[in-house]
Each structure stands twice: as C-alpha cells, then as structure tokens.
UniProtKB/TrEMBL annotation:
<dbReference type="InterPro" id="IPR051923">
    <property type="entry name" value="Glycosyl_Hydrolase_39"/>
</dbReference>
<feature type="domain" description="GH10">
    <location>
        <begin position="80"/>
        <end position="178"/>
    </location>
</feature>
<protein>
    <submittedName>
        <fullName>Endo-1,4-beta-xylanase</fullName>
    </submittedName>
</protein>
<dbReference type="InterPro" id="IPR017853">
    <property type="entry name" value="GH"/>
</dbReference>
<keyword id="KW-0378">Hydrolase</keyword>
<feature type="region of interest" description="Disordered">
    <location>
        <begin position="124"/>
        <end position="145"/>
    </location>
</feature>
<dbReference type="InterPro" id="IPR001000">
    <property type="entry name" value="GH10_dom"/>
</dbReference>
<keyword id="KW-0732">Signal</keyword>
<keyword id="KW-0119">Carbohydrate metabolism</keyword>
<keyword id="KW-0326">Glycosidase</keyword>
<dbReference type="GO" id="GO:0045493">
    <property type="term" value="P:xylan catabolic process"/>
</dbReference>
<feature type="signal peptide">
    <location>
        <begin position="1"/>
        <end position="25"/>
    </location>
</feature>
<dbReference type="GO" id="GO:0004553">
    <property type="term" value="F:hydrolase activity, hydrolyzing O-glycosyl compounds"/>
</dbReference>
<keyword id="KW-0858">Xylan degradation</keyword>
<dbReference type="Pfam" id="PF00331">
    <property type="entry name" value="Glyco_hydro_10"/>
</dbReference>
<keyword id="KW-0624">Polysaccharide degradation</keyword>
Amino acid sequence: MAGSWPVRAQAKFVHRLLFMLSAVALLNARSASPISDQTGNLPGQPIPSSYFSMNILFHPKNHVPWPSVPLGGWRTWHVNWADIQEQPNNFDFSLLDKYVNWSQEHHTEILMHLSYTPRWASSTPNAPTDVEVTKPPGLSGPPRNMEDWRTFVRTVATRYKGRIHNWELWNEPNRPQSWNGSVETMVQMSREAYTTLKQIDPTCTVVSPAAEEAKGVEFLDAFLSKGGGQYADVIGYHFYVGANAPPEAMVTLINSVKAVMAERGLSSKPLWDTEAGWLGNTMLPPETGAAWLARAYILNWAAGVSRFYWYAWEIQHGTQIELVGPDNATLKPAGVAFATIQKWMTGAVLTGCSGARDGLWTCAFQRENSVSHVMWSAAKETTVPVPPAWQAHEVEALNGNRTQIQSNPITVGIAPVLIQ
C-alpha cells in the first residue's frame, strides 16, 4: 500500500539511524576528524555459522582431537594430489576417508584444496617447493599430461560425491614454490577441474585458486582477465597481511581484491578467505593474539568476506597466535576468543562498522529483538562514553566474563568487548 512501511523495515531504519548518530557522536568526542576507515557495503544478511571455519592440520603423526569449540567448516591438509597419488596407478585414500568420516560425524563441511602435482606427473620434477617439506621436489609444477590431472580430479570427486561439497582449485599459485607454471595453464587446469567436478556433482561449490598477501592481487587479476573466473563459484584468497600488521590492514587488502573482482565483472561472486592468520617465530602475548583473532573475524565479515578459514587450529611452530596448547586440546585465550566471537556474531546482522583516526572501532549487531555493539581501540586503551540510546547495562570480554556497567565512560582496549 502506498505510504505504508513494514514494521521490521522501519525498526531497522531507526536502528541504523541511531547507530550512525551514536557513532558520529563517539567519533566527534574522540576527535574532529571524520571516520577514516570504512569497511564498505555491509553484507546485510544474518551471519551464518559456516563463516567461522578453520584450517586444521590433523597431521597423521600427531594426536589431534576434534576441536571442543563450534566449527563452521574445515580446510584439509596432508591429502593433496601428491599425497593421494604418489604413484601413477596407486591412490591412497586412507587419510582422506578418515577426514570425511570425521567431518560427517561432527556435521562439519570439508573444503579440500586440489593442489600439488606428484613428482612422477610434474613437468618440473626437480623444482623446489616449501609447501610440504617432507615431500620430494616437483610439487609446484604443472602436470606434463593434463589427462593425469583430469583422472585425479575425476577419481576423488567420484569417490566423495555427496560427502565433500567444497573444492579449492590450488593453494597460493602466486608463489613459485607452490606453482611455477603460467597463469594460462592455471586457467586451463581450473577449467578442466571445474568441468569435471560439475559433471560429477552439479551442486558442488568450486573455489578459485587462492593467491595470498598483497603480492597475490596481480596474479588474481591476471587469472580473472584470462577468463579464470568463469570456472569458479567462489573467489578464494589468503588475506595474510604480514607479521607486524594489525587486523585492520586486512580491510585494505580485501578491498583491493574486491576492486579486481568488480573490474572483471565478478562482484556478485562470494569471496572466501580460505587461509589467514599471523605467521612468524615471535609469539604475540596471548591476550593480544586473542584480540587480533576476534578483530580479524569481525572485519573480514564487515568487509565482505562470507567465509573465513583461520590458519590454523593446532599450529604451534611458525605462528604468532596459538589457539590450543601442546596437547592440541586445551584452549588458549585465542581459542576461547574463537568460541566467544561466534556467540556474539552468529545469527546477527551487522548493521554498522566504522573506525576513527585514533583507532576506535564501533560495530553494531542486530538480532530480532535486540541490538548489541562491539568496540575496541586498536591503538591503545582509552575511555569511551556509552551512548544512552544503546540502553546498555553490561560488558562482555572475549574470555566470556561479564561486568555490569557501573560508570560511564567505560574503558576499551585492543580486545573487542560486547556492550549490551
């Protein structure tokens, strides 16, 4: 009816207006400068549990129990092409069978990346690789015979039809140690794999080869410019930003990838962050690691990423952030934060997220009958007035501790807090 407005739509509009007014008031209270960091167009739909996914290494030599926290999906390791088909006529599915049975038992979807050419099939059998240090060279080379690639994809897709639904076409092809072939050959391999996968299971989801870091944007652009985007349902990327860069730097990189997608007419395709975290040999303080993980999950979603696979659940060497202890089970602060951030975000609609020049971030999450806000200060601990319009009465920390708001302003640090 002309002039009418559904109640829910009106409520959403009022909330968005209140968020903008409250955010502007907060930012003006902090400084006279305008908002300097915006995450762009917000997704607008409820955040699904599948967004909170994880790389889990499950190394065959280690005892890694199933994670004790909610898990939306997991990306596999140690079951690449070179692992499964070490010899031309020998397929070893024992480990992948275990993974698939485990995923079905826990109702968690697998994302399997189809990567790394066995040495016997490689066109560069002596080329170095640093991806699988225990494997022989040659994994980074294109296959000499494309039929070998088709046979592998057909065999694995047929065996796991209906049990593995998500496939990623290569791991970090912008790195010579992972892929030393041409962009054109990667497009060809993507076409062969996509066609085969869809013939076997038309409902499956195919993720593009996932380049990494800022240096990978050029590869992605070249891959898409040569038609690679038509052989993927989802654009995959690894949004690593460097050992010393904070999570907010991911927004800039995500926007660069989205700009390439837009230029190639692919803005409508979902964007997945299939691997990201903080690698290095210097461990961050545990509370800082927890804060960075939480901020990364908030900002990836706000910037337009629809699934995020953290790297990695049980990694304890070469990482700056540990989620579990040496027993691969006991949660560290970052592991607790992974569970907490899911509770805050899953099922909610992100209706606003912005940052000020001084590093203060404010994000709003709306549910059917409530609105909550998450705040953090990326630069330093600071005091922040809680707008009366929020009608907030408590603050929840990443460790799950809740405190009543006894005074206003409140103290906000590098770790996000939920204000409700």
